[in-house]
């Protein structure tokens, strides 16, 4: 007679040896998850390359390197790395200023700097940046991407600055290319509606379905929409970076900018991913070393800069990944696809990827972050950072945001509220001191205390987070003097 144990499906029963158990776990959990992450990463990598004005193959190289190199070396086993929307603006500026091959050198040099950061064990220091500045930076990047890609969606070309993108958008809206516009709108509609489809259907990534639908539609619609162009195979696209011919004074800030932004974004993403699973926590220094190694590799091969990406990482966890094998395999699938199916990539219309990028850009502006900034009194910091990122550049926007955040912190440190009021119907007075009572508050403190009539009973309420020696002495000296006039101080 068979028992319940005998009836257990073979596929659900792991073999006995450690290696067999590991292979069984990978095949059952990590392999399916890697395919899902690959399907999400592929269209995003292509789109980010286009948004960065980089060669299309550079996005695929970075995605493969991010998956394989960071997958093997990283300190966050569930995090998936690759080209990220957070660097599109700064990469596009660097390409425009130095050219593509020098940009690859800057990427490799930024990777080397990240390795120095990791060896110096300062990874956690990057997490000290005010979250509101990071949120606003991402929002500014999202607005910039959406403004750029609106022109591509309408059949035109993105402009070199946000101001030009805004001022020339009305004219582009009056003269759209019908086929590009329709394809882009359908892509946007599918991605927006995808969370509402049945759960079984939603196992297929919405961005992939949207881009595939847009590609098929472009083949049957009349007209000739602009498509992705790959000038050569992935292997032909691999090339050594070139040293800058001059302007080393501009190269150094570019290296530092990419290294800092890539490090902060990767570490913040790792923190977010740790909250999504119950496995091991991130080794931040090791993760930074791995990100640096990946950026050095990507730059040397002709790829885009790499960071940890929360969209791919959260997809990885949600798809059931258990180990870093899923991250590594997703990079392998991108590599295989890039070599064997180049012809498929060249059928994708640019307007389909523009629709995808517009959604990605809009999603970077999170209402929850704006509401949080409003509740915490940091809305001015958020606004200054976002507007500066959009209309100046990423580095200046972040620096202005940090300066604004520091100024707000300084204001809160020196801010104190002192109120001396009589109690209605009595001869008593109440003095309320709220905030940070330091020597900087002495003018306001002594002014209010002087309004209390001599000989009255006074209750002093101190609701302070810090009281320095000068503030303490000022209050007690006044209390002794007031009591000498016949009053009472509690």
Portion of residues in helices? 55-70%
Structural class: alpha/beta
Low-confidence stretches: 1-13
SSE string, helix = H, strand = E?
A: HHEHHHHHHHHHHEHHHHHHHEEHEHE
Determine the strand fraction and express it as a percent band: 5-15%
How many helical stretches? Answer: 21
Spatial order of strands in the largest sheet? 3-4-5-6
Average of pLDDT? 83
| Overall body shape | elongated
Distance between the termini: 87 Å
Query: How is the main sheet built?
Result: 4 strands, mixed
Evaluate the radius of gyration.
29 Å
Topology, number of strands: 6
In short:
The chain has 21 helices and six strands. By secondary structure, it is an alpha/beta fold. The strands form two sheets. A four-stranded mixed β-sheet has the order 3-4-5-6.
Structure description:
This protein has helices at 18-51, 56-73, 88-98, 100-119, 131-153, 162-167, 169-174, 178-193, 206-220, 234-237, 248-274, 284-301, 310-318, 325-340, 342-345, 350-364, 367-375, 379-391, 394-414, 442-449, 469-483, and strands at 81-82, 307-308, 416-422, 429-437, 457-467, 488-489. It is α/β, with parallel strands linked by helices. The strands form two sheets. A four-stranded mixed sheet has the order 3-4-5-6. The protein has a two-stranded antiparallel sheet with strand order 1-2. Helix 1 (18-51) packs across helix 9 and helix 9 (206-220) runs antiparallel to helix 16 (350-364). 45% of the residues are buried. Residues 1-13 have low confidence and may be disordered.
């Amino acid at each position: 007679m068979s028992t319940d144990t005998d009836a257990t499906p073979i596929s659900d029963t792991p073999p006995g040896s450690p290696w067999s158990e590991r292979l069984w776990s990978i095949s059952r959990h990590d392999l399916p998850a890697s395919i899902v992450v690959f399907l999400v990463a592929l269209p995003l990598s292509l789109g980010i390359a286009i948004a960065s004005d980089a060669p299309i193959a550079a996005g695929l190289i970075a995605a493969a390197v991010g998956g394989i190199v960071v997958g093997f070396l990283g300190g966050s086993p569930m995090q998936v790395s690759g080209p990220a929307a957070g660097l599109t603006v700064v990469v596009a500026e660097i390409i425009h200023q130095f050219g593509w091959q020098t940009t690859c050198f800057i990427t490799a040099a930024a990777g080397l700097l990240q390795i120095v950061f990791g060896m110096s064990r300062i990874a956690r220091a990057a997490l000290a940046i005010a979250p509101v500045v990071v949120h606003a930076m991402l929002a500014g990047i999202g607005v910039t991407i959406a403004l750029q890609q609106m022109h591509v969606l309408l059949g035109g070309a993105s402009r070199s600055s946000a101001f030009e993108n805004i001022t020339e958008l009305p004219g582009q809206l009056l003269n759209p290319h019908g086929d590009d516009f329709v394809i882009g709108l359908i892509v946007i509609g599918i991605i927006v509606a995808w969370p509402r489809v049945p759960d079984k259907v939603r196992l297929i990534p919405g961005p992939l379905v949207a881009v595939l639908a847009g590609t098929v539609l472009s083949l049957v619609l009349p007209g000739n929409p602009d498509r992705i162009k790959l000038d050569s195979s992935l292997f032909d696209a691999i090339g050594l970076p070139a040293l800058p011919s001059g302007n080393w004074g501009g190269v150094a800030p570019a290296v530092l900018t990419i290294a800092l932004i890539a490090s902060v974004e990767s570490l913040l993403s790792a923190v977010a991913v740790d909250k999504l699973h119950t496995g091991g926590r991130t080794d931040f220094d090791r993760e930074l070393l791995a990100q640096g190694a990946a950026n050095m590799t990507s730059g040397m091969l002709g790829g885009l800069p790499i960071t940890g990406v929360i969209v791919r990482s959260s997809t990885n966890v949600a798809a059931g990944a258990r180990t870093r094998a899923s991250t590594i395999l997703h990079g392998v699938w991108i590599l295989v696809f890039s070599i064997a199916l180049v012809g498929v990539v060249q059928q994708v219309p640019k307007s389909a990827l523009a629709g995808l990028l517009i959604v990605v850009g809009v999603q970077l502006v999170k209402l929850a972050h704006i509401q949080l900034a409003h509740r915490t009194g940091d809305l001015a910091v958020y606004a200054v950072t976002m507007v500066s990122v959009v209309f100046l550049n990423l580095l200046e926007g972040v620096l202005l945001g940090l300066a604004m955040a520091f100024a707000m912190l300084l204001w809160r440190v020196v801010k104190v509220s002192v109120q001396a009021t009589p109690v209605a119907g009595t001869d008593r007075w109440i003095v309320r001191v709220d905030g940070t009572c330091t020597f900087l508050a002495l003018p306001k403190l002594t002014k209010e205390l002087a309004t209390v009539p001599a000989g009255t009973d006074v209750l002093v309420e101190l609701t302070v987070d810090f009281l320095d020696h000068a503030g303490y002495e000022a209050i007690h000296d006044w209390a002794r003097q007031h009591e000498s006039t016949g009053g009472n101080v509690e």
